[in-house]
């Protein structure tokens, strides 16, 4: 009876952990000297990318036709990654600033 | 119309290049600071003219981006020359840049609507390209103070970014 209960609870936990991301992380990208650093990061679905703008200039992290994160001077902003695949983004104000997020499922 | 514009731009370019050539026997740091600051002021003034004249959101937004960035760079430049106790020194290159910018401003003042938008953006592409070249070939190699050199290198990235941004806006306007 007792053992059955425990295995049921364990089963529920196992189910929950297979559905929810095991441990969603926050991956930081610093924006400094007119560049994203690191320029390339790897993330899993459910992770958050946080851009920290340390430049005296406003920037954006933009994926054309998909999404845009505004990065005002001295501010941080973030985005939860929902799809796997490779994402190339750039700064709309300075298109010579480029970054990449490689998202594993 | 565009053809005439290109010709005028070509002329402007030559004028500034002549200025740069005169200063090419290595401008000193005080002159370099003056040239970089002047280039910023020119683009700030052009942006103000565009914000006042243009009715196109795409163009006004672009001009506001230019205004914000160049004010930020020039503030850094002023802080640096103060720290280094350098007094920016007027020179033929700064004078040629200013003269060309005045001619451009007068030309733009006669235009409005789509003609203004187009001329402003085309000039922004050309102006940033010209300053990129000057930074790469003359100003950065001639700068002796490492902090000034580093600020110019950041300036180059900004100007290159703006050039690409202006090209994108030009493509969207078509
Ligand atoms: Cu940027």
From TrEMBL, chain A:
For this protein, the record's InterPro entries field holds:
Amicyanin, Cupredoxin, EfeO_Cupredoxin, ET_Amicyanin
What Pfam families does the record point to? Cupredoxin_1
Listed A to Z, the keywords are: Signal
> What CDD domains has UniProt attached to this entry?
Amicyanin
| Domain called EfeO-type cupredoxin-like: residue spans | 8-103
What is the superkingdom listed in this entry's lineage? Bacteria
Annotated signal sequence range: 1-24
State if Signal is listed as a keyword.
Answer: yes
Quote the protein name from its UniProt record: Amicyanin
Q: Which organism is it from?
A: Manganibacter manganicus
Taxonomic classification? Bacteria, Pseudomonadati, Pseudomonadota, Alphaproteobacteria, Hyphomicrobiales
UniProtKB/TrEMBL annotation, chain B:
Which segment of the chain is annotated as a signal peptide? 1-23
Give the matching InterPro entries. DUF4142, Ferritin-like
Q: Which residues form a coiled coil?
A: none
Keyword Ribosomal protein listed? The answer is no
Q: What are the residue boundaries of the DUF4142 domain, all occurrences included?
A: 28-168
Is Signal included in the keywords of this UniProt record? Answer: yes
Q: Which UniProt keywords apply?
A: Signal
- Annotated protein name in UniProt: DUF4142 domain-containing protein
């Amino acid at each position: 009876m007792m053992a059955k209960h425990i295995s049921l609870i364990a089963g529920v936990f196992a189910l929950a952990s297979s559905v929810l991301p095991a441990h969603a992380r926050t991956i930081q990208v610093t924006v400094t000297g007119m560049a994203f650093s690191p320029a390339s990061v790897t993330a899993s679905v459910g992770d958050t990318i946080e851009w920290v703008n340390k430049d005296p200039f406003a920037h954006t992290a933009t994926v054309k036709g998909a999404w845009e994160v505004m990065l005002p001077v001295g501010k941080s902003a973030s985005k939860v990654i929902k799809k796997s695949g490779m994402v190339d983004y750039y700064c709309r104000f300075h298109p010579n600033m480029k970054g990449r997020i490689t998202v594993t499922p | 119309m565009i053809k005439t514009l290109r010709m005028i731009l070509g002329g402007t370019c030559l004028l500034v290049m002549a200025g740069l050539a005169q200063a090419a026997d290595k401008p000193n740091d005080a002159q370099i600071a003056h040239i970089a600051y002047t280039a910023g002021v020119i683009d700030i003034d052009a942006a103000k003219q565009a914000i006042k004249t243009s009715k196109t959101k795409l163009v006004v937004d672009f001009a506001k981006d230019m205004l914000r960035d160049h004010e930020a760079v020039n503030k850094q430049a002023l802080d640096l020359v103060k720290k280094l106790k350098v007094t920016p020194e007027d020179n033929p290159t700064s004078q040629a840049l200013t003269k060309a910018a005045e001619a451009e401003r007068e030309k733009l003042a006669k235009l409005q609507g789509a003609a203004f938008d187009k001329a402003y953006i085309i000039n922004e592409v050309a102006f940033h390209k010209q300053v990129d070249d000057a930074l790469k070939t003359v100003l950065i190699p001639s700068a002796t103070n490492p902090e000034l050199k580093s600020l110019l290198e950041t300036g180059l990235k900004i100007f290159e970014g703006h050039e690409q941004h202006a090209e994108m806006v030009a493509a969207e306007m078509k």
